[in-house]
Amino acid sequence: MRRPLPRGAVAAAAVLALWAAGARAQDEDEFERRAVRIGCFVDDGNGRSKLAGTGSGFLVGDRRHVVTNHHVAMAEACQRGTAAVLVGKTPVRLKVLTWSEQHDLAVAVAEHDIPGKEPVPAIVRAADIASRDEVYVLGFPGIVDEMAADDNMLRPTTTRGIVGRKIETASRTGMLQVDARTIGGNSGGPWVDPCGRLVGIHSRASYQFVETGNQLQRLPVGYGYAVQTDHLIPLLDQARVRYDVAGRCTFLVRNGRTLAWSAAALLGGALAFGYSPPGQRLWNALAGRMAAPGGGAAAVPAGPHLAGLSGPLRGVSVDLAKGPIAIGRDPRVSHLALPAGCDDVSKRHCLVRLAPDGRHFLLEDCWSTNGTFLASGERLAPGSTREVPPGTRFYLSDASQMFELRGGGT
């Protein structure tokens, strides 16, 4: 015969269930606080401002920096008038800092902190997103305004879907396709994973034309497309906006708080359960590039390659024939990562790659804080690219981080 559970255990389970439900509701509220509504205000001809169009956006780094689509921030109405975040009774003006028309992205700064909103906690790169991953699309679809009361216009709509595939457009923009229904007004809004981290920036939706009577009506098909976050990172670097990069949303990352509180409730605090975000993955970033079997020195590539001359990466040789190499201190956004403590090097400091002619190299500064320099001491302009011949030496921040480009042709 089964023995009944002790009343204390039943009570603990009940408290836990209520807490878990409250935690889920709180998470939903946290998701909503990561989306902002952006409006374009123009003069109505009588000296007053009127709203001429809206889109979506989100905060990154702090409560002032806003990311949205280029076609939202640089819309004709916003150019003719003023772009602002709609919050409370007084819109907060925006100033565009940097943008990419090719990738349909823009980074702006608000005139002051945006109340009641929170920045996305981290960015997930496309390499850590796979087909069938669950995503949440947040934004302000205009058609919803027709149904909602005015005081609900500032609350975003959340739809859920799965990533169908990754694609690349004719403009070489990496996109994510999701089966969540989106329409006009969602543009610029965040796509987040179940952990609340940014996985994409909504850009467009699929439509089909349906004949109704004597006219064609454009109706959404049910697929949305978002710009991959890899295109956003260079713009954030250029605008000097801080951000964190995270890996996949695992069960432990998503449910860590619930599991920790469950252990505390059921075991009376005897067991403390914790989790930490993924640490630096230097060995993973360099595996197959630097290390040789038995711990010996790696073989020097015969073709065009990057060679470390000084600093922690002295003796490292990386093949450039396989593709570009980003150098920095954060292995989540750099292929070749310096170890912890190299704080004078930016997260993603510079990019080196083989030039199209196969004989020269391209050295690009990724809006680094302390600069990318040629051995002569000349600093590359922030964000600029320089074509250089084989034998060129360059360094990051100071000459203690020196590299050489070798093996091109003449």
Quick take:
By secondary structure, the chain is of the alpha+beta class. 16% of the residues lie in helices and 34% in strands.
Describe the structure.
The termini are far apart. The protein has helices spanning 7-32, 70-73, 76-80, 232-238, 251-267, 282-286, and strands at residues 36-43, 49-59, 65-68, 82-86, 92-100, 105-110, 123-124, 134-139, 157-168, 174-178, 190-192, 198-212, 215-228, 245-246, 305-308, 317-319, 325-328, 336-337, 350-354, 361-365, 372-374, 385-388, 393-396, 402-406. By secondary structure, it is α+β, with helices and mostly antiparallel strands. It is built from 6 helices and 24 strands. It folds into 3 domains: 7-30 and 250-267; 33-246, Thrombin, subunit H; 282-406, Tumour Suppressor Smad4 (Sandwich), CATH 2.60.200.20. The protein has a 6-stranded antiparallel barrel with strand order 1-2-3-6-5-4. The chain has a 6-stranded antiparallel barrel with strand order 8-9-10-13-12-11. The radius of gyration is 25 Å and the shape is globular.
Comma- or semicolon-separated keywords:
410 residues, alpha+beta, Thrombin, subunit H, 3 domains, six-stranded antiparallel barrel, 6 helices, 24 strands, Peptidase_S1_PA_chymotrypsin
Our count of domains comes out at 3
Distance between the termini: 87 Å
Q: How many strands, which pairing sense, and closed or not: the largest β-sheet?
A: 6 strands, antiparallel, barrel
> Strand-and-helix sequence, N→C?
HEEEHHEEEEEEEEEEHEHHEEEEEEEEEE
Query: How are the strands of the largest sheet arranged?
Result: 1-2-3-6-5-4
Structural class: alpha+beta
Strand tally:
24
The appropriate CATH architecture of the largest domain is: Beta Barrel
Radius of gyration: 25 Å
Approximately how much helix is present in the residues? 10-25%
Q: Can you identify the CATH class of the largest domain?
A: Mainly Beta
Helix count, per DSSP? Answer: 6
The name CATH uses for the topology of the largest domain is Thrombin, subunit H
The fraction of residues assigned to DSSP E strands is 25-35%
The overall average pLDDT, rounded, is 78
Poorly predicted sequence stretches spanning 5 or more consecutive residues = 1-28, 269-297
Write down the overall geometry. globular
